[in-house]
Amino acid sequence: MLSYQHAYHAGNLADLHKHALLAWMLDYLTAKPKPLSYLETHAGRGLYDLSGAESAKTGEARAGITRALAEGWLPEDHPLNQALDQIRTLHGPAAYAGSPLIARYFLRPEDNAHLAELHPAEHAALAQVAGFAHLHAQDGFQMANALCPPTPRRGLLLIDPSYEVKADYESVPRHIAKLSGKWNVGVIALWYPILTDNRQAPMVRALMRDHPEALLSEVRFPPARPGHGMVGSGMFVINPPYGLEAEAARLATLYAGL
């Protein structure tokens, strides 16, 4: 949906969960001297200003990445810490990286990146910071279906829709079934919100039924404000890299203490 803008939510507790796992996976994959492909279906603008009016309006970053950094939730050598350190060095202390720029930190010249973003303003902003990637102003699932299996075949696909319409929860399992069938060696990572009305549950059950060997990582946290419907974050990963389960367990323990 073209109304969604992530600037209001950048750096929140869900971003911290999603980006910690994403950075861990990219660090692991790029440790091997083999090129890879990185694809994103819903890339956003790539770079966010946590001192901006959008972030101040919701306060979600203060409860998320700002608190996490102040309280040392991430080990100093954590891949996400390393990526965010570089972003703040380059863009200032209030800068926060979306997933495209987190990926940029790890990707090497031999790697191939494709980012889809349909929102015109978000796409224009992304173009200012994502010169390392092929950009696609189109539906992200269309891009992924057109490119999969990508070249190189080794790699990661991040699927992160806005879920502004309930139909997203019904269509995602079908999209992932098709993409995983075409790209059976790819790491396919889906982020989704955990909501008070539990509307994500049928989607998760369908995904686990179709992909029983996948990794499911879910964390819960207090709502950002009274009446806010999101109370957790989920990541579903097909072909999870070795060791990701331990990082997911570490994050689950951390969030359980909030």
Question: Helix- and strand-based class?
Answer: alpha/beta
Round the mean pLDDT to the nearest integer and report it: 93
Oligomer: single chain
Q: Please provide the count of β strands.
A: 9
Q: What portion of the residues fall into strands of 2 or more residues? A: 15-25%
Site (Interaction with substrate rRNA): 4
InterPro entries: RlmJ (IPR007473), SAM-dependent_MTases_sf (IPR029063)
Function: Specifically methylates the adenine in position 2030 of 23S rRNA.
Subunit structure: Monomer.
Structural write-up:
- It is a single chain.
- The protein has 258 residues and is of the alpha/beta class.
- The protein has a single domain (6-256), classed as Vaccinia Virus protein VP39 (Rossmann fold, 3-Layer(aba) Sandwich), CATH 3.40.50.150.
- The chain is 44% helix and 18% strand.
- The chain is built from ten helices and nine strands.
- The chain has helices at 13-29, 53-58, 60-71, 79-91, 99-106, 120-129, 140-147, 167-182, 201-210, 244-256, and strands at residues 37-40, 47-49, 95-97, 112-116, 134-136, 155-159, 187-195, 215-220, 230-238.
- Strands 5-4-1-6-7-9-8 form a seven-stranded mixed sheet, with helices on both faces.
- Helix 1 (13-29) packs parallel to helix 5 (99-106), helix 4 (79-91) crosses helix 5 and helix 8 (167-182) runs parallel beside helix 9 (201-210).
- The longest helix has 17 residues, at 13-29.
- It is globular.
- It starts with 12 loop residues before the first helix and ends with a helix.
- The mean pLDDT is 93.
Secondary structure: elements and pairs:
Layout: H1 13-29, E1 37-40, E2 47-49, H2 53-58, H3 60-71, H4 79-91, E3 95-97, H5 99-106, E4 112-116, H6 120-129, E5 134-136, H7 140-147, E6 155-159, H8 167-182, E7 187-195, H9 201-210, E8 215-220, E9 230-238, H10 244-256
Parallel strand pairs: 1-4, 1-6, 4-5, 6-7
Antiparallel strand pairs: 2-3, 7-9, 8-9
Helix pairs in contact: 1-3, 1-5, 1-10, 4-5, 8-9
